[in-house]
Design goal:
The complex is a heterotrimer of chains A (334), B (290) and C (252). By secondary structure, chain A is mainly alpha-helical. Chain A has helices at 15-30, 33-64, 66-72, 75-78, 92-123, 126-141, 144-171, 186-210, 214-222, 227-256, 259-264, 282-289, 296-332, and strands at 82-83, 88-89. Chain A folds into 2 domains: 15-64; 76-332, MetI-like fold (Orthogonal Bundle), CATH 1.10.3720. Chain C contains 10 helices and 10 strands. Chain C starts with a strand and ends in a 5-residue tail after the last helix. Chain C has 252 residues and is of the alpha/beta class. The chains are: A mainly alpha (334), B mainly alpha (290), C alpha/beta (252). Chains A and B meet through helix 1, helix 2, helix 5, helix 6 and helix 7 of A and helix 1, helix 3, helix 4, helix 5 and helix 6 of B.
């Protein structure tokens, strides 16, 4: 309908029809200013909503956490006591648990994520890469509550009965691997997070590898490089900052993961060196306690946990995104 | 002419070995990564399949101790909340995506929006829950299906925005230019030519985002909250499959654990079917933005 | 004497046959130009000589390619070894962006474990850069990134990189198509100098270039080798009508 065909009228059109067509064509050509305005205005408004959401979230959380912010001040971040009954709120155990469980996850997920990405984009033939890539995407699609369920009833008991005894026997001299074995633990949380973060890191790494110019790969091969040497010469140096970005982004996901962790970590706000002990994280504490919080200051303290979480997440995401943009920007945004 | 010195030959073997070893490690990493996928799916089917029957989809949950019952209200609730969230996210997300690739194309504010969308994807879901609790639940005076839908929509919007933008950017520039050259106004070009060409890609992106957020639990905990009864009202708490599975899984009751497995199986099946169908239709290389 | 001999060689991308039963003898210490309209398979042809063709997904080669009489597609032949003996320079210069100029030149040496001590390495880097006629321009900036050079210099850097491992054959796939006329002249001069030590095969879409630098010329059309012979003869007195049509600019 957009390009009326003026070329071939079988019968000469009537004067009115001609005038009508001409008017319509004029309108099309000139553009209805209103249409332009509505279109630009509407899309710009939705873009503005998207843009303002992040800011709104931070502001709303800060306001809601205000009572706790002014009452506990910096003590909130370093306090180790979390006692809602006596209105003692220290966030350190949650911060500690979040950091340790996430780092534990990354320790496993980073090498695996990079390995998967290398396998899919540099190694496997197309058909295999498609199948494996599809399966890895499915891994990312499984809801976190399902991972949590599996963590409670399968992974947790497995770690308790098979992995933890072995760790205790061979590495038990480290404080990390001492103590009772109960099935819900920091180790469980780290393991389930690792499974959830691998597809994430590998997906970002694949995008980053895809941005490596093919002529670098060819140049390496033409010099007589083996496949691994090609990866080391052409792919890895070029994508280094993107890989680091992917890992940091993965860290961000691990920090913020809520439900699966809440289900397997045991939710105990005590700092313990042992990975066999139950622990807690910022996100899982909020999920567990929010609807039970009875006093206003308790709610505000929980929201302040959320504020800490989002500020850390923002810092991580902004850093990582900037590192990745440098490499992939030419491809996605022109 | 061709003299191969022994140390060069040995080195060549070593290089080939090293390359082979590194590549084997990468393949092993991939296979090991996929082990949990099959374990999780295997356990889901094994533990959940017995709990799936007609009653699961039609009945309400029963109190502890009473056998039978189902999660019919939660299935319905998930459909309602996810459906409403999709409508909201499509309006805002597709609008944003169009803005990024059309009117905002060459404006620096577009970079800000794009960046904000990417950062929003990394905002922890529980934080989105608190945010919606503060701006919707508190003013409305209680948990509601509407609040749940808004929370999911906040998570879904950046996904939709970025996939829409990507789909639009794949439309060849010549198409846009030739439409403009015909004298068609810019906004009609964007909508009728560019967006229509990219419609398939946009739909794909929306469906993938939908599958992703349908599995979210954390943002619903203190927005939709959950409900033991049938409810479709937007102003009242509503059950959701994810929340129900969570509640049952952490309960101490054997009966409820069985129900949780059945619920998780249904949930996963819903998500993976959408994901699988979309991917097999739209082919290779498709990825949810992250 | 033929350094390289193609015997009924065909190349495929998936099901499409890009080259059809090519028979060609490439003489040693000469420059052989491969010309033809775009899409005729010129690049594919040279990429078959160092087994680069097979790095493209679903690509394969049939027939034999003999290097000094030995089939490089024979069983047990390592493509990596072949690529060390047959160097290649591409259309777009591709120095490794994270490496300095000298590291770019030495990268092939490091891969092959050829330069064992630092002195030897520096010597080879200098010799290669001299041979690539780049030494005087970069000798004070060896530590600078390779990507800081101009396009023409980058291409000569890539030539130096290919020469550093002492290949026997140098394949050049439209090495000047991304360069300005002055850089092109530099490269052409270089090709004429290098042919005393190397067997050179150069793909070009520029017939003047082929006439200027080559001793022998192969004309390809639609994946078929139409004519091969002395460059002068090809350009002045071609045997085949298609060749004449092409060099007189009637198509392509």
């Amino acid at each position: 309908m957009l390009s009326p065909n003026f070329g071939s009228y079988a019968v000469a059109p009537s004067a009115t029809a001609q005038a009508r067509t001409k008017r319509r064509w004029q309108r099309l050509k000139m553009g209805v200013p209103a249409g332009e305005l509505v279109f630009d205005g509407f899309t710009a408004a939705t873009a503005l909503i998207t843009l303002s959401l992040v800011v709104a979230i931070v502001v709303v959380l800060a306001i809601s956490a205000w009572p706790a912010l002014v009452r506990f001040r910096a003590g909130f971040l370093v306090g180790t006591e979390w006692d809602p009954v006596n209105e003692q709120f220290g966030a350190l155990p949650f911060i500690y648990g979040t950091a340790v469980s996430s780092l534990l996850a990354l320790l496993v997920a980073a090498p695996f994520g990079i390995g998967v990405a290398l396998c899919l984009s540099e190694l496997a033939p197309d058909w295999l890469s498609n199948i494996l890539g599809f399966l890895v995407e499915l891994l990312a699609a499984i809801p976190s509550v399902v991972y949590g369920l599996w963590g409670i009833f399968v992974l947790g008991p497995f770690l308790r009965d098979a992995v933890e005894p072995a760790l205790a026997r061979y590495l038990g001299f480290l404080p990390l691997f001492q103590g009772p074995r109960v099935g819900v633990s920091m180790l469980s949380a780290g393991a389930i997070l690792a499974v959830m973060v691998v597809p994430f890191i590998s997906a970002v790494c694949r995008d980053v590898f895809a941005a490596v110019p093919d002529n670098l790969r060819e140049a390496a091969f033409a010099l007589g490089a083996t496949r691994w040497e090609m990866v080391r010469l052409a792919v890895l140096p070029y994508s280094l900052s993107g890989i680091v970005g992917a890992i940091i982004l993965g860290l961000g996901r691990a920090l913020g993961e809520t439900i699966a962790v809440a289900m397997v970590i045991g939710n105990r706000s005590v700092i313990s060196a042992s990975l066999f002990m139950p622990s807690t994280t910022l996100a899982s504490a909020i999920a567990n306690e929010f609807t039970e919080a009875t006093s206003d200051i308790y709610v505000a303290a929980l929201i302040e946990l959320g504020l800490v979480l989002i500020l850390v997440s923002l810092l991580i995401n902004v850093t990582a995104r900037l590192m990745i943009y440098k490499l992939t920007a030419q491809r996605f945004t022109r | 002419m061709k003299t191969v010195e022994p140390h060069v030959d040995a080195r060549r073997m070593w290089r080939k070995f090293k390359s082979g070893a590194m590549m084997t490690a990468a393949v092993l990493a991939t296979l090991l990564t996929l082990v949990p996928l099959f374990l999780v799916l295997g356990y889901l089917v094994k533990q959940g399949v017995n709990g799936i029957n007609w009653a699961f989809f039609t009945r309400l949950p029963r109190p502890v101790g009473e056998p039978g019952g189902g999660m019919g209200n939660a299935v319905l609730g998930t459909l309602e909340v996810v459906g409403l969230a999709s409508v909201l996210a499509v309006i805002v997300g597709v609008g944003t995506g169009i803005y990024l690739s059309e009117p905002g194309r060459n404006r620096s504010v577009a970079n800000g929006v794009r960046f904000a969308a990417d950062v929003l994807m990394g905002v922890p879901s529980i934080v989105v829950g608190i945010f919606v609790y503060a701006v919707v639940v508190r003013p409305m005076g209680g948990f509601s299906a509407l609040a749940g839908a808004i929370a999911l929509a906040v998570m879904m919007t950046p996904l939709v925005a970025r996939t829409t933008e990507q789909a639009l950017s794949m439309v060849p520039a010549e198409l846009r230019e030739s439409a403009l050259a015909l004298g068609i106004p810019r906004w009609r070009t964007s909508l009728s030519v560019v967006a229509r060409t990219a419609a398939r890609g946009i739909t794909t992106g929306v469906l993938l985002a939908l599958a992703r957020i349908a599995g979210e639990t954390a943002p619903l905990l203190f927005t939709a909250f959950g409900n033991q009864y049938w409810s479709t009202s937007l102003r009242r708490p509503i059950a959701a499959l994810t929340v129900q599975v969570y509640t049952y899984a952490i309960s101490p009751f054997e009966d409820w654990h069985r129900q949780a497995w059945a619920g998780a199986l249904v949930l996963t099946a819903m998500v993976l079917v959408v994901e699988g169908v979309v991917r097999s239709i739209s082919g290779r290389g498709l990825r949810t933005p992250r | 004497m033929a350094k390289i001999r193609l015997v009924r060689m065909s190349a495929y991308f998936g099901r499409t046959r890009a080259l059809r039963e090519i028979n060609l003898d490439i003489p040693e210490f000469n420059v052989t130009a491969v010309i033809g309209p775009s899409g005729c398979g010129k690049s594919t042809l040279v990429r078959c000589i160092n087994r680069m063709h097979e790095t493209v997904k679903d690509a394969r080669v049939e027939g034999d390619v003999l290097l000094d009489g030995e089939n490089i597609y024979g069983p047990g032949v390592d493509p990596v070894q072949i690529r060390r003996r047959v160097g290649m320079v591409f259309q777009k210069p591709a120095p490794f962006p994270t490496m300095s100029i000298q590291d770019n030149v030495a990268v092939g040496l490091n891969l092959n474990g050829l330069a064992l001590n630092r002195g030897e390495r520096a010597e080879i880097v200098e010799r290669s850069l001299r041979r690539a006629a780049l030494w005087n321009e970069v000798k004070d900036d060896l530590g600078k990134p390779g990507t800081s050079l101009s396009g023409g210099q980058q291409q000569r850097l890539c030539i130096a990189r290919a020469l550093a491992v002492e290949p026997e054959v140098l394949l050049m796939d439209e090495p000047c198509s991304a360069l300005d006329p002055i850089s092109t002249a530099h490269i052409e001069e270089l090709v004429l100098e290098l042919k005393s030590q190397y067997t050179i095969v150069i793909v070009t879409h520029n017939m003047q270039q082929a006439a200027r630098v080559s001793d022998f010329t192969a004309f390809l059309l639609g994946g078929v080798l139409i004519e091969f012979g002395d460059t002068k003869q090809i350009f002045t007195n071609p045997e085949r009508q298609e060749t004449e049509d092409y060099i007189t600019g009637r198509f392509g």
